[in-house]
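_Per-residue structure_
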Amino acid sequence: MNQINYLQLINNADVYSLVEKTPLEYATCLTARLGNKILLKREDLHPIHSFKIRGALNKINQLSEEELKNGVICSSAGNHGQGVALAAQQKNIRAVIVMPVTAPSIKVEAVNSLEGEVVLYGDNYDEAYVHAKQLKKEFGLTFIHPYDDPYIIAGQGTIGIEILSQTEEKVDAIFIPIGGGGLISGIGCYIKETNPDIKIIGVEPTNACAMKESIDAGYPITLEHVGNFADGVAVKQVGDETFKLCEKYIDEIITVNTDEISAAIQEIYEDTRVVVEPSGALAVAGLTKFVKTTDIRHQTLVAINSGANVNFDRLGYITERAAIGKQREMLLAANIPEEPGSFRKFCRAIGQRKISEFNYRYNDDTHAKVFVGVELQGNVQEHKDVIDAIEKLNYSVVDLSDNEMAKLHIRHMVGGSSSIKNEKLFRFEFPEKPGALLDFLNAIGTKWNISLFHYRNHGSDYGRVLCGIQVPSKKESQLTEHLSKLGYTYWEESNNPAYEMFLTR
């Protein structure tokens, strides 16, 4: 199609046989925190929990009777596949959906439930795309592109129509996630052709920013690798058509990392009580970063919540990374003297701040290394205050909050086996509250040396500690009597086979 009139295509898009207008919701918590009026376009509320139904339905509604009879095929990370499957189900036609083997199971199962024929192929979207094009030829199916098609773009552009009709006040900027570029191309085109004063700001993951790098280069480039955390936007190459439209209509592209995306998921949950997927939170992550870097105030900003198809088993990881993304947790590594009382001094330096995690294992007779997570109130100064308090004890300390290896691996690997004389292992539970860990250490006292310590706050009502204590056999009864007086629930684990296998030599 030459000289495509996208404004006309968007206005004529045929989507409302399955699509209902999604709300543009006021985000109370985000507004209060960021000092700007934040509105969320709730594309997560579609039956497939993603905006992708708009483009897929519009495209399929343009097919000839013969094309419909032959059936359709698409490649998808998951959400586009659901849209194609649902639209095909409405038309009662065959739909083959090629998805990478890495696609979240919730998306695969959703396509199956819509009677789509799922083919799992390749480790990423681009490999699935090549395979889908091969199957298209083999079976004579019509290929429904996820983003680089005028009717797909036009279908997504109906979101722009809705946004302008849903608020009478001046919108200053709209933040839109970018994968292949279909969503931002459609919205951006409609908004800029209707009201060019509104900024269109795209958001991509730092490890999957094909559109930003393409625009910087002046032509569509191919990324060698893409990160799969935000799987819905994990494409190596944007479309030719979407590239042209993005070059024309986008004002700026912001990139955000995994921690910032995870923090945005939490922010959206606090406002909506819905857990969006990582790609669905991109816009809020970018909006938040934009506000912090520009220090704008009292503007009206719209973010597209593009999808909410997230596997439940990813939530633990997201929660862990969200705390760091919101500057609500810092990770520290420190050397402390191997002597009674040093552990308690260290915790006193941290103060009444909530400890999310504490890992310690006796190493030698002079010093011990500890790894600790500390919950913060969300300001940069607090990082410095904690570091300064520890350094006043002449303990060496390193802030690992921005250390990717530490966040991904080291925090779960601290410890190891050791040959320690007279070590007894105990497991404790105590009511969780700020300062509870320090209270626990104060109760234990300094009479016995702690040789192993692991604590992690899992968000439950009770703190759980695994603690090794060095106690000569002649004084075991004294320790038992002391522990009984503390009032903490505890179990001795000295004969636990896991202890014998992994924590002793």
